[in-house]
Design brief:
Rossmann fold, 10 helices, globular, alpha/beta, four-stranded parallel beta sheet, homohexamer
């Protein structure tokens, strides 16, 4: 039995359910997925300040999760707090957009990224460049759909997405396209037949990469000396998680 | 009267007092500085996870500060949450290490960075590269002093710092050196006479840059469309700050 | 039943057997691996000219393989002809060093690479930089072991490898290390207990990434117009492979 | 009393007066500004060859200035000879475009640059990239206004500038915009109300940064060994300046 | 007497004759050029897989050439196998596109590249970036002409080329333009009068650079230790070439 | 008859004679070289300020040269004013260090640079990076020899140079090495037999590249609109050169 922990860094439980459903669709036979949701912050993070809050919320949600797990999928599309979780946990941790970009690199020379919400474009750009993927990123495009407009007129937002994808293919040389945005998960299945390049979804990509990392069974990276800081003002579970107490670093 | 708000993202009030003292030493005649301290997190942030927490703590501390201010100095040496604060406030915001690096660029072609605590070296490296300063960064060095060892044997840690600075000068071509780390603020005054290149301190640099930005009197950058997210689970002041309510975006 | 095709671009069948054994050790339950060997070229490629020959040999070997397969693992450590195979096949293709680097990026911020044979260091450097991984590559080290010296005195070459790994960790900030070189596959299992960072092997990494890509079930990237070139002087199977005849682009 | 020396590297005294007026508008209470003009070269430098001449003219003008000063503002928008002045003087030296870019980085994630005269666009591009600001530079735009056309129809050139600024904001993601070109100084005050991002002017930015650097009171960088070259054919003051005679390196 | 060996990595002998004629037009007085053609592969390489084959074909063609020569011009526009030939031969080796780019850098600050066949654009892009010329490459454009359409309506393809060149000049800031593609060699002579920037042809550029390298008379680079690999399955001449036997490394 | 103009941007006529002698040694049969010397500035430029002066001196020297010429070799090792000369002249212009680096790229994958005088190392570093050659530059080394010490004990400085070259080969992976510094021209002939990689000299490289560019017979790049600046305070010939009067743009 493999146990994945999916952490939605947004507070929307509707989105968590959607992410979980997509994750379960792609999970292997013996994989059980638990989904948890940020207990505070924005329902759908799309600015820098609520993304900072989401960092705490992701750590907090993981810290409060009692049951053991073998890997963590950070299911907020800015991959918030991924590196911090990797530091405090002993199990593999992957962010959903990171996962999609990595899979894109394995099937293309250069990939593009499409997202809803123009406000988030620079945030995705920075995140992907910070991963060191400048040479592989062909371009980014935002469509003007919100979750609301998408639900109101899905055909319209799908047409806009398809146009943005084709723009990335024809004008930027994208050989694959990442569909970014937690609220859009699953859309790749509808759009894939309409475009000539592979579409990558973060949840599908992440579940599969994590199952693989669990099989690789690597030890965590222990390059740092001991920490001597004192924590205060945090919940008990958060304090334990950051203190590196064994109980909080699960797998078994 | 100019009012600076200094936010220590570490929870150590001793450090806050030290930072405030250094800031006041460099502040102009009509400048009044208020210093606030993170209400939760690590006493001295030196790892990724407590830095994520510090992001929330910085926003929280600013949100809970009732009095008006004209600029914010983020006084945690990883410049935690600087971009997020810039997004939600209408006043200038500068991080202490960012400030030191920027001043270093104005007096040298390439600069180095010295810090206590080897664990933090990659975090500084990432932060400075994310500022886009790869071409200007000559190198980084960590000494093995903690605040404790520094207080126990200041001459030893100063000798180690001086050796690290000279290493950066001779072997990396550093023409200026940034002394990073909130706990080390003020040390540049003791070390400057002993080395042949200018030493930059984040608090001195930041106070001066902020006073200048206040005088430049620029409007904030309004490039984004309206945000439609819903916040939950946050304190009232934090919610106001992230919601962009005018009361929270001070300057008068 | 999932069928992987492992292509050794070196002509050494001993190495092929070793690679196949390592691949089978990491393969999933329903995975069947066929291993084929370059029919011409160098027994162990370590220079640019024989690597150019290996490119043809990899295509040739794949072209002559009659049975269907679902993915291809290019098991020559310079990942020779990976992009070309991706272009002509409809199934996922991954190179062994590419796979190890990708897995390294998912468990570390920056990774190092260790290899036998100083002559090949610049070739690995170029290959990894061409993948666009400059920001993630902490450093490279070569030890002076050949396969012969390794077999003659394995303890010596393991000690040298361990020293090189620790050099990458301590002096270059590597948080993970890729063990490169087809002839060294499997050594990561012996060395892992001796070092504080995860060690990545290309065969283990590649088998697992390919199984994941098969599950993702992405269509190939069709961004190019029709090709109008005429081929001559090649074997029938090679001509078919490059002509894009359906029979040669397998998966069923 | 703080004494700034403003050096116009163009030979146009009309421009010098304009630059001085703008500088005085932004200077602090106890700041006295002396403005000097290049004694030879182009009235408004806009090509590489006259920019080379302007380098000499800037050094020459500074060398011939007898009165002491505490900092130098290089008021030619290609920041000509800034690094050379920094080398031979003991006081802070800042270029006007460098100053504007630095201030832009403190208020935005990525900034754009607008300039009159298409011929100079590649020169600005090179200068800003040589500062190492590639990651922060969102784009550049030139309008086709000369000083003459601007004076003849200021509303037209302002409309063109505003359009170029909005193009940089909307299509390149610029969160701030630098108005480059000595002849355009002051225009930022008229255009600022018309655009949604902060506009940076080199003179305002430079005066303020220099006042700050004077307060920081850093020693010059002494990393080089003694120079042994012999100068000839230069004016006495220029020879003194380049020889490093104390009389020429002012501040007191 | 100087003897150049021109190697067409495409199998089209018509193209070889065209390349040889262009080379002879630019060769110096005492230069004798021998042209050889790939014995297998694509008539005009325009995809990754046939480019991989061309690598072998280039080495094979050179290996089978019995007469001595003083330098090699790799006359396939993706410069296939250039680095490998440099490794095994003792004489200068230059690729035609590399040569054109290098000459472009000597007459411009940034250059563009025009090519027939949209399919090859990413291949040129990668090749030129791999040369490290990112900073000098202003842009790339493909026209939709094939050799066939060019022969059928040369005026049309010339008009398309001219439009693409002007696009690179006006919109990308190209100060010179490389005409890429072996089949287009010589066209620069017809187009040069119609455009305001220098046009570079790979054959003209390469012949001239090679004559210069012969005069420089540099020793080859011997930085590697001895190779110990065993070759098999190759023709006798190829085996000799890769084994570094003196008979195969000509000049005399 | 081909006429090269060699411009020494240093004022030392002894160096000019040495440069001319080296140039003549490498020039082709029908090449006549005229050598001119900067009329003002440093005898051997090794700092930023005298390099700025040298820019004017190079333009001045060329402007005052009455006889026609077909190409210009800028024989000061920081390649001072090369781009400016290219802009105002109609004939090919190459800098000596640029020439050596370009030739190095044609015979190696990565090259190193050795120079006398530690003070100049950052200036060479900047110049070569500004050429966009970061990916090809393996490293730089300075020896502590001045022209004086070299003349006093040539064997010592040659031993130091050889050691620096071997350091670049062994520790930085340099496959070729540029010997930089006008005063060192010709030394490559003595050192070449002692090292295993090709050594590049700027004068030899430049003469040969220029002869090649003359044969390529490219038109100058005319991408700019008309200049409208007014010049003053310059000598008549300098004014003519910068005004673009045909008499000053020679070749015939």
């Amino acid at each position: 039995m493999t146990r994945l922990l999916l952490v939605n860094g947004n507070t929307s439980k509707t989105v968590t359910q959607k992410l979980l459903a997509e994750a379960e669709r792609h999970a292997g036979a013996n994989v059980q997925i638990s989904a948890i949701t940020a207990r505070f912050g924005a329902d759908l993070v799309s600015d820098r300040a609520s993304n900072v809050i989401a960092g705490h919320a992701v750590l907090d949600a993981v810290a409060h999760h009692q049951d053991p797990y073998d890997a963590v999928l950070v299911a907020i599309s800015l991959d918030t707090a991924v590196e911090a979780l990797r530091e405090v946990l002993s199990v593999p941790v992957v962010g959903m957009t990171e996962a999609a970009c990595w899979q894109a690199c394995l099937v293309s020379n250069r990939f593009g990224v499409v997202m809803p919400d123009r406000n988030t474009l620079p945030l995705y750009r920075e995140r992907i460049l910070n991963y060191g993927l400048r040479e592989r990123l062909a371009g980014l495009r935002a469509i003007e759909a919100t979750v609301q407009t998408h639900h109101a007129a899905p055909a319209d937002s799908e047409a806009a997405l398809r146009a943005a994808i084709m723009d990335l293919v024809v004008n930027e040389g994208s050989e694959a396209v990442v569909l970014a945005g937690a609220s859009m998960t699953g859309l790749q299945r509808r759009l894939q037949p309409l475009v000539p390049v592979p579409l990558l979804d973060g949840i599908a990509s992440g579940v599969i990469l994590l199952e693989g990392l669990i099989r690789l069974n690597l030890p965590p990276s222990h390059v740092n000396g001991p920490y001597t800081t004192t924590l205060s003002g945090l919940s008990g579970p958060c304090t334990e998680l950051l203190s590196g107490l064994p109980s909080a670093r699960t797998s078994i």
